[in-house]
Design a protein that fits this description.
Strand order of the largest sheet: 2-5-7-8
Shape: rod-shaped
Helix content: 55-70%
Largest sheet: 4 strands, antiparallel
Structural class: alpha+beta
Low-confidence stretches: 1-8, 21-38
Number of strands: 8
Strand content: 5-15%
Radius of gyration: 43 Å
Length: 443
C-alpha cells in the first residue's frame, strides 16, 4: 500500500512540474516571438528609411518646441489687449505749495500742505490699436512657419545620408554575391583538378595555384563582409531600426523619364514663408501710423484731495477718461521700413530663383551621365558575356591539360573583374537615378 501511495505521489509531482513548465512556456512564448519579430527588420525600403531617419533624428523634436514658443507668443499678444491694472502708492514732501488767501477783504484762505500722499489703482484699456495686435499675430504665425520650414530643410539632408548608406551596403552585397559565385565555380574546378592530381595527371603546383586564388577570394569576401557591417550599423543608428547585414534593402522605381520633372524641395516653401513674413511686417509698419484709442481710469485715496485742492484732508477720489494717440509725423521712418522689407522680399525671390536655377542646371548633367552609363553598361554586358565564355573554355582546357593553372587563374580574375565592373556601373546608374529624383524632391 505504501508503495502505491509513494508511486502516486511521484506521478502527481511530475504532472504538477510539467504543468508549471508548460504554463511558463506558454506565457513566455508571445514575448519571445514579439521580441524576435520587432528586433529583426527583414526588409527596408528607401522611403521607409527616410521616414524613420527623420522621425528618429533628435532635431525633429525642435518642431514641438517651435510650436510651443509660437503658442506662448500668440498668447502674450492676445493678453496685451487686456486691461492694464496697476496699484500705485506715492508720498511727496515739497518745499512750497499753493497758498490762496491772506488778502484783506477776501474770505477765501487756502494753504495746501507741503506733504501729500496718494494710493490708487490705475487702469488702462486699449479700445482700438489700429490693427497692431492683429498684425503682430500674423507676424508670429509667419515666423513660426519660417522656423518649421527651415527645420524641414535641415531634415532633408538626412535623405542624402541614407542614400549613401543604401548604395554602399548594396554595392558591397553585390560584390559579395559575385565573389561567392566565383568561389563556387572555382570549387568545382578544384574538384576536377584534385581528381586529376590524385590520378597523377596534374602537378601539385597547379593545384596549389588554384587553392591560393580561392584563399585570396575568401579573404576579399571576409573584408567585404566587414565593410558591410560598418554602414549597416550607421544606418541602424540613423533610423532607429534593427537593421542587420541580412536586411534586404529595397530601392523605389527610379525612372527619370524623358521629360523634365518639377522641383518640390522644402527650400522653396522656406523662401515662400520668408516672403509671407516680410509681407506681414510691412502691414505692421503701415498700421503703426494709425491712431489708437484708449480708456483710462484712476481711483483711490489721497491727502490732500488730488482733484479738489480746497479739500485739505484725506479723501477718496476717482476719474475716468478717453485718450487718443496719433503719431502724425514720423519723418518717413515707416516708409523706409516698408522699402527695406520690399528689398528683403526681392532678395528672397532672387534666392528662390537662384536655388531653382542651380537645381535645373544639373538636370542636363544627370541626363547625359545616365545616358553615358547606359551605353557603358551595354558594352560591359557584352564584355562579361565574352569573358564568361572564355572562362568556360579555359576550364575545359585546364581539365584537358592544355592550359596551365596560372593562365586559368588569370582568366578567373579577368572574368571576376569584368563582372565587378559591370555591377559597379549598374549601381552607379541606380545611384544617379536616385540622386536625380532626390535632387528634385521627388523622393
Amino acid at each position: 500500500m505504501k508503495f502505491f501511495y509513494r508511486l502516486l505521489t511521484i506521478w502527481l509531482n511530475v504532472i504538477v512540474n510539467a504543468l508549471r513548465t508548460l504554463t511558463l512556456i506558454l506565457f513566455s512564448l508571445p514575448l519571445v516571438i514579439s521580441t524576435w519579430c520587432f528586433a529583426q527588420v527583414p526588409q527596408l525600403s528607401l522611403t521607409e528609411a527616410y521616414t524613420s531617419a527623420q522621425a528618429h533624428y533628435p532635431l525633429v523634436n525642435q518642431a514641438e518646441i517651435l510650436e510651443e514658443i509660437s503658442a506662448i507668443t500668440l498668447s502674450q499678444i492676445r493678453r496685451s489687449r487686456l486691461p492694464d491694472i496697476q496699484a500705485v502708492a506715492e508720498g511727496i514732501l515739497q518745499s512750497d505749495n499753493v497758498q490762496i488767501g491772506g488778502i484783506p477783504g477776501v474770505p477765501l484762505n487756502i494753504e495746501a500742505p507741503l506733504e501729500s500722499f496718494r494710493a490708487y489703482l490705475d487702469v488702462q484699456v486699449l479700445a482700438f490699436d489700429g490693427g497692431v495686435s492683429a498684425s503682430q499675430r500674423r507676424i508670429e504665425q509667419a515666423r513660426e512657419r519660417v522656423n518649421q520650414e527651415a527645420l524641414n530643410v535641415d531634415l532633408r539632408t538626412l535623405k542624402d545620408r541614407v542614400n549613401v548608406l543604401f548604395f554602399t551596403i548594396t554595392a558591397n552585397k553585390k560584390q559579395v554575391q559575385i565573389i561567392e559565385a566565383s568561389i563556387d565555380n572555382l570549387d568545382k574546378t578544384l574538384e576536377s583538378v584534385q581528381a586529376r592530381f590524385d590520378q597523377g595527371v596534374v602537378l601539385e603546383s597547379e593545384l596549389n595555384k588554384l587553392n591560393v586564388r580561392k584563399l585570396e577570394l575568401e579573404s576579399d569576401l571576409d573584408q567585404l563582409e566587414g565593410d558591410i557591417k560598418a554602414p549597416v550599423s550607421v544606418l541602424a543608428k540613423l533610423t532607429g531600426l534593427e537593421v542587420s547585414p541580412e536586411t534586404r534593402l529595397i530601392f523605389p522605381k527610379a525612372d527619370t523619364g524623358e521629360d523634365a520633372i518639377p522641383i518640390t524641395r522644402p527650400e522653396q516653401s522656406f523662401f515662400v514663408a520668408q516672403q509671407m513674413l516680410y509681407q506681414s511686417q510691412k502691414r505692421l509698419a503701415r498700421v503703426r501710423r494709425l491712431p489708437t484709442i484708449g480708456i483710462f481710469g484712476q481711483g483711490g485715496v489721497g491727502y490732500p484731495n488730488p482733484l479738489n485742492f480746497n479739500e485739505i484732508e484725506t479723501s477718496l477720489y476717482g476719474l475716468i477718461g478717453v485718450r487718443l494717440n496719433w503719431k502724425i509725423l514720423d519723418w518717413g521712418k515707416s516708409r523706409q521700413d516698408r522699402q527695406i522689407l520690399n528689398l528683403e522680399m526681392r532678395n528672397t525671390e532672387l534666392d528662390k530663383l537662384t536655388f531653382e536655377f542651380n537645381v535645373l542646371s544639373r538636370q542636363k548633367e544627370f541626363k547625359e551621365r545616365i545616358n553615358a552609363l547606359d551605353k557603358t553598361i551595354a558594352n560591359n554586358e557584352k564584355i562579361v558575356a565574352l569573358q564568361t565564355r572564355i572562362l568556360n573554355q579555359s576550364e575545359i582546357q585546364l581539365q584537358n591539360g592544355v592550359l596551365t593553372a596560372n593562365d586559368y587563374v588569370q582568366q578567373v580574375n579577368a572574368e571576376l573583374i569584368a563582372r565587378l565592373r559591370l555591377e559597379l556601373l549598374v549601381q552607379q546608374r541606380l545611384n544617379q537615378n536616385i540622386e536625380y529624383l532626390t535632387l528634385f524632391g521627388q523622393l
